C-alpha cells in the first residue's frame, strides 16, 4: 500500500481506495500459493502492517469527520470500528500461524473477505458521501494527515487496544515505535 508523496494528485478518498486495492491484490498473491512459504509469510506480514496503518489513520482523521458531518456518522463509525476489530483478530491469528498450515489459508480467506466487505462499504457508501459533504481542500488536507499518521502508526494488530482517535493520537506513536523496533529485530518487512 504505497503512500502517495505530498503534492501528488489525489485526496483522502483516492489514497484510502488505493490502499484497499493494493491490500486485496497482495492477499490474492498469497492465496495463489505460487510463492514459497517464506514469500507468503513476507507478503502477509507486509499486508498486515499496511492494513493496520491504514485502519489507524482512518480512525484518527477520517472517522471524526464522518461522525461530525453525517447524521448517521456515529453509527457508521461504530460499524467500521467493529470491522477493524474483526480484521485485527484475524490478522493476529495470521501472525501466529505458519504459512504451511491449512489454517493459514483459511485465515487469509477470512481476512480477504472481511477487507473486501469493509472496502466495498467505504467505497460505495461512505467515500461518495465524504466527497459530497467535505470540500476538496479539506479532503486533500485529510490525505496529508492520513499519510503522516501511517508513518507513525503501529504495524501490528492490537485487538485489545481501543479503536479510537484519542487513543491513536496519544498512545499510537509509542506503540508504533515499539512495533517498528520488533519488525526490525525480527526481519519483518513492511516497517
UniProtKB/TrEMBL annotation:
Positions of the Hemerythrin-like domain: 12-130
Protein name, per record: Hemerythrin superfamily protein
InterPro entries referenced in this protein's UniProt entry, alphabetically: Hemerythrin-like (IPR012312)
A Pfam family the protein falls into: Hemerythrin
